[in-house]
Amino acid sequence: MHELSIATAIIEQADALARADGADAVSAVTVRVGELAGVVPDALSFAFEVARDGTALAAARLVVEQVSAQAYCGPCAEEFAVGMPPFFWCPRCDQPSNDLRSGRELAITGIESLRASA
11: annotated binding-site residue? Predict the structure, then answer.
């Protein structure tokens, strides 16, 4: 389950970013996960819950924003859903596309930090 290594990397990066910002803990991490990124969102959420124990993210929640795979067809200027399994054939003009516009994302897009009371 490679989601565990991804969850561990998310926790390490979020912790480093929060500490660099002067935060003591993280309450939430938001990640964008593309449909074609090869990551199962439910498995990632479970792995995050397991990996966060004993870290500054021990009470943090993971917010997963799923991004659908979209391709673009140059000949007819149509953007279309690729789906799963991926099908890169334009439904409008019946031509193949090699211009994937979204769906491979895997990135932290937000961190909610907590600071200790003075």
Answer: no
